[in-house]
C-alpha cells in the first residue's frame, strides 16, 4: 500500500509539470516547478506512508491538470478531446471529494473557472443562446451530476463493504443500525413492545446522538448544592447505557421469572414511569437546578439508593405519532416509536445535544431537562429492549433507504468533524504557521526519526515569489488604470497577460485551499497545507521563469542566452542542494540530535520551533 | 450637523438640463459643479449623483444676488415627506420613554459608569468615554450626584436619578438616524419615494426603537455610523472641485463624525472601514484620471488620510484627557491598571498592605520574612490556594493531586510566602533554624505558603498545560510515592555568591532553582482552566536562562526584630563590608520615586488602550449570547428587562416581517443584479445605462455597508449579542427600499398596473403596527407595544 501511495506522490510531479506547461507553455517554468516539487521534503514524507494525503493530492492535481487542458480546448468545443478532458475533470473532482472533504476546495476552483469560462462565452455574441445553453448543460452534467454520482456510488460501496456491526455503531441511529449484520437490532432479535420490567437503552434521535448513559461519577461540587450522579449521552455501546423501566410505585412487584406472560404490562402513551440505571441502581432524576453547561435547562442526575428515589424521578412517556402526538394508550414500540420523556414535576423534557461535558464528565455529551417542549433534540427512541418473558416477535423494522443512510452518515461526519478538538498537550498548529514553515509534525520518533517539515528554502522562496507576483499584478493594474500599459508593445502586453492571468488562477487555487482553514473550528495539522502548497509551487515556477525572462530581455542580445541559462541553473542548483540538506528529515534520522556536529542535521535547525520533541 | 446638511441641500432647477450650464440662479455649492454625464461605457464606475427628482428637496433658503432677481428674495420649499419621517421617528422614540421605571439590561453598566464620572471614581471599561460622558453630563446638569449605582437589572429608579433625560440622549440619536437614512438614499440617487420608504422601515423597526430608549451606547453608534456615511457621500459629490473650501469642509465633517463614532465605541471601526472602502474605490478611480498628475494624487490620498484618521485620533486624545481629568479618585478600575498608573489616583490602597508594614528602603532580606514574588514576564504573583490539581487531565495524564501553585495577576493575601531555612533530614529543624539571619545569595531556601502552610515543591510530574515541564505544587504529604524535594536555590545576578541579599521593593530580580532537578521556577503565561480559576500556570523550566524564570521581590514583611539595634548594626556592617556600594547606597537614592512613580498623560493613554484592546476577549459565556449566523433571521432574542410583579417585559426583537423580508431582499438584489448583468452581457439593455449604473453602484454601496457591519463579527471570538447586529440593519432596510423601488419602476412600464409593491409594503408594515398589540397580552401599555411584547 505504501508503494501505491508513493506512486501517487510520484505522479504529482508530472502532473504539476504538465499543468504548468498547459498554462504558460514554457518548458523551463514547467521543469523548475517539477524540480521544486521533487525536492520538497514535506511532500516526500507525505507520499511515503499510507495516508489519505497522497491520493488526495493526486486527485486534486489531476483535476487541476484536466481543467487546464479542458480550458485549452475551448477553441474546438464539443469535439472528442473537449469531452474527454471535461469528463475527466469531473471524475477527478468526484474522486478528490470522496477522499476527503478538502476536495471541496478544488470543486470551488473548478467552479470559479467554469463560471468565468461561461461568462466569456456569454459575451461572445456570435454564439446563440441555445449554444450557450448547450455549453452550460454539458458542464453541469460533467462537473456536477457526474461527480455526485461518483461520490454517491463510493458511499454505496462503503455501506456494502461495511455491512457488519462495529465500533462505529453508536454514532448512528437505531434504524441505521438495524441494517448492520451482527447488531442487536439486526434480524429481529428484540421484543416488539416495551413493558414494565424491560431493560432498555434510549437513543437520542439527533443525527449522531448518543445513548442515555450514567456512571458512578458525581457532578463536581461547584455546580451546585446537589452532588449527584452524572447522566450523560454516550455514543458507544456500554452496559452503563441500560435502564430498567419501573412503575412509579416502587413497591409494586415487577413480573419475576416465575410469572407468566399475562402479568406483563406494556407501557402506553401517557404512562408515568421511573427509569432505574441497571449498574448503579439509581433513578433518572431531574430537579430545579441549572444544568452544568446549559444554564437555561434543568440538571438531570442519577438519584436514589437501590432504586428507591423520590417524586422527582417520575417521567411521563409521550409518543409522537405520525400526526405529531400519538393516541392515548398507544404502546411503545422498540426503535420505531419516537418518544419524549416529560418530567412530571418540572414539566421539562429529557434533552441531549452536541455540547460536551468537560473532563469531569469524560467529555461525554450533556443531558439536560429542557423546558421548551418543541425542541427537536428532545426526541428519543428505545434502541435495545430486553425482557425475559416477551417473545421476540418478528416484524419488519423500518429499514432506511440508501439515501437516508447517506444523509445520516453525513450528518454524523459533519458533527464529529466539528467536534475534533485537540487533546490537551497535543501539538497543534495554526494556519498562519504553515506558509512560513514554522513548525513541523512528528511522524515517527524513536531511533528512526521522521519529521514532516517542508523544505524551508522552497517554502520561503514560494512565499517571496508570491509577494513578488502580487506586486507585479498590482503594478500591472495600476499601469492599466493610468493608461501606461496600453502604450507598451503588444507582445510585451500579451506576455504579461499570459503570466498574470495564469498566475492569478494559481493564486486563487492556493487561496481557496488555504484561507478556508482560518474559519474552521476543528483541530488543524500541518499536512492540511499541502494541497495549497502544490499551487504555491506552480505559481513559484511560473513567476521565476517570467522574472528571468524579463531580466533577460533587458540585456545585450549577446548575453541573453548565457544569462538565461545560468539563472535557471542557479535556481535548480539551489533547489537540489536544499533538498540534499534536508533529505534526512524524510528518509529518517538516527543518531545524535542536531546540536551534535555528527548529526546529519547539524546546523540546520534554523527555527527554534523545529524541535518540538527534540527530534531534529 | 444633520440640520445643516439638510439646509444646504441644493435646489435644483426644475428642468433637468439646467444643471449642466451652471445656471447663475444656483449659488449653492453643489449645483455649480458640472453635472457629470455618467457614461456607463467608461470602465470607471462612479457613484451616481442624486437624481434631480421632481419632488422637492427638504428646505432651501435662498439669498441670491443676481441681476435677474431683486434683493432678499426668500423662497422656501418644505419637503413634507422628510418632516413627516422626522416627526414619526421622534414620536416612536420618545413616546413614554420613561417606561419602565426600572434599570433595563446594560443600563446597569452605562448608568453606573455615568455615576462613576459624577463621583469622579476611576473605573475601567472597554468602550471609549464619549457616550458615557454624555450621560454623565446630562446627569450633572440636573444635579444628580452619582449616588445611585444601577446595581442590578430591575432595580427601581429613585426619584433623583434623571434616567429619562439620559434615555432621551439615546432617543435623540435614534430619532436623528431617520433623516440620515432619508438623506443617504437621496445622495445615492434614489427617489424621494424610496428614501421615505427606507425611513419608514427604519422608523418601524422595533429593535432600533428599543435601542433608542435605553441608556446604552448603541443608539449613538448607529446614528454616527450613518452620519459619517452621509458626510462622506456629500463630500464625494464635491469631487469635481478638489481642494476647495467645501471639499475641505466635507472631509472635516466626515472626520468629525468618524471621530465621535470612534469616541463612543470601538465597533465604530467597522464604520471607519466602510467609509475607508468607499474612499479607496474613489481613489482607484482617481488614478485613471490622467489630468491629475501623481503628486496631486498623492495629495488627494494624504489629505483624506489626515482628515479621516487624524481627526478621530485628536478627538480620542481629547476625550481621554477629559476622562483622566474627571476621574481622579481611585476605584474599581484600579485592579486593571499598573502600579504607576494607580499612583496618579487619589486614595490608592494596596490590598495586601493592611496588616503589614512594608520594609522601608533597602533592607536585608532575612529568614522568616514574608514575601511576595512577581513574575517579571507575566506580571503576576506566585500564588497558591487550598485547591488540588485534578486527579486526571482529559488526556488521561495524571497529576500529583497536590496543592495548586499558580500565578495570579492581582494582589492577594494568598500571594505571601515565608522564606525559611530548609529543614534537615527527616524534617528535623537544624540548629539555628529559627534565627532571622540574612539570606545570602545562592542559599538553599524553602518557601512556605502562609495561608495553607504548604511548602513549594516540584517533582517529576508533567505540568498541567505544558507536559514537557515539571509541575510545581504545594507539597501534600500522602505518605506515598512522592518524596518531597522542597529546597530551592535563590540566585540573584550581580551579587557575589554568599553575600547577603539586600531587598528593595520590585527591584530585586531573582531566580529560584529547584535543587533536586536543577530546573528553574517559571511562569509559562498559559491560563489554566476553571479548576484553577483561570490563573496562570507555574512550572519548572529546564532552560535556566529563560526570561520567564525571573521573579522580582515585591512585598517583604520582615519578622519582628528580636533586637532592633543589633539588627541595624549588623546591617550597617554588612553594608560597609559589601564591596559593591551600588547595590546598597546608590539605589536608596531613587528609592522614593520608585513606589511613587507616576505616569504622564501619554503613558496613561497608551496603557489604557492596551488594556481595553486586550480585555475584549476575556468576557465569558453568556446565556443570551447569540452567534452572528443567528442574527439576520433573528434566531435568538435578547431579553432586556422582566417585570418582577407582572409579566411585562422588554425584549430586543426586530420587526420580524421586516427583518425576514429584508434578508430576502438581499438575495433578491443579488439575483436581479445577476440577471441584469447576464442580459447586458448579451447586449440586451433592459435599463438605460444611467439607470442600471445607479442601481448597480448604489445597491453595492448599501450591500457593502451591510457586509462591513456584519461579516467581521464572524471572526470575533468574544461573546456576542443580537444588538451587535443593529448597526447593519438600516443598510439592509435601505437595500430593501431600493429593491422595492426597482420593482415599482419595472411594473410602471406596463400600463394600467394597479398593484404597486411599494403600496403593498407600506400597507404591510402598517398592518404590522396593528399586528403587534396582539402579540402581547398587556395591551394597555401602549408605548411598550413598540418596544416589547411578551
Automatic annotation (TrEMBL), chain A:
Keyword Membrane: yes
EC number(s) reported in the record: 2.4.1.109
Transmembrane stretches, start-end: 28-47, 83-115, 136-161, 457-478, 499-517, 529-551, 563-587
GO cellular component, one term: endoplasmic reticulum membrane
Catalytic function, reaction form: a di-trans,poly-cis-dolichyl beta-D-mannosyl phosphate + L-seryl-[protein] = 3-O-(alpha-D-mannosyl)-L-seryl-[protein] + a di-trans,poly-cis-dolichyl phosphate + H(+); a di-trans,poly-cis-dolichyl beta-D-mannosyl phosphate + L-threonyl-[protein] = 3-O-(alpha-D-mannosyl)-L-threonyl-[protein] + a di-trans,poly-cis-dolichyl phosphate + H(+)
Superkingdom of origin organism: Eukaryota
Protein name stated in the entry: Protein O-mannosyl-transferase 2
Annotated source species: Geodia barretti
Lineage: Eukaryota, Metazoa, Porifera, Demospongiae, Heteroscleromorpha
From TrEMBL, chain B:
Region (Disordered): 1-37, 574-595
Compartments it resides in: Endoplasmic reticulum membrane
UniProt EC number: 2.4.1.109
Catalysis: reaction(s): a di-trans,poly-cis-dolichyl beta-D-mannosyl phosphate + L-threonyl-[protein] = 3-O-(alpha-D-mannosyl)-L-threonyl-[protein] + a di-trans,poly-cis-dolichyl phosphate + H(+); a di-trans,poly-cis-dolichyl beta-D-mannosyl phosphate + L-seryl-[protein] = 3-O-(alpha-D-mannosyl)-L-seryl-[protein] + a di-trans,poly-cis-dolichyl phosphate + H(+)
Membrane topology: Multi-pass membrane protein
Keyword presence, Membrane: yes
One Pfam family linked to the record: MIR
GO molecular function: dolichyl-phosphate-mannose-protein mannosyltransferase activity
Record key words, sorted: Endoplasmic reticulum, Glycosyltransferase, Membrane, Repeat, Transferase, Transmembrane, Transmembrane helix
Keyword Transmembrane helix recorded: yes
Stored InterPro entries: ArnT-like_N, MIR_dom_sf, MIR_motif, PMT-like, PMT_4TMC
Transmembrane regions: 71-91, 133-157, 164-184, 215-236, 301-324, 657-678, 699-716, 728-747
Predominant cellular place of this UniProt entry's protein: endoplasmic reticulum
Residue ranges of every copy of the MIR domain listed in the record: 362-422, 436-493, 500-556
PROSITE patterns: MIR (PS50919)
Top-level lineage group: Eukaryota
Pathway(s) of this molecule: Protein modification; protein glycosylation
One GO CC term, this protein: endoplasmic reticulum membrane
Biased composition (Polar residues): 25-36
Family that this chain belongs to: Belongs to the glycosyltransferase 39 family.
Protein name (record): dolichyl-phosphate-mannose--protein mannosyltransferase
The species this protein was found in: Geodia barretti (Barrett's horny sponge)
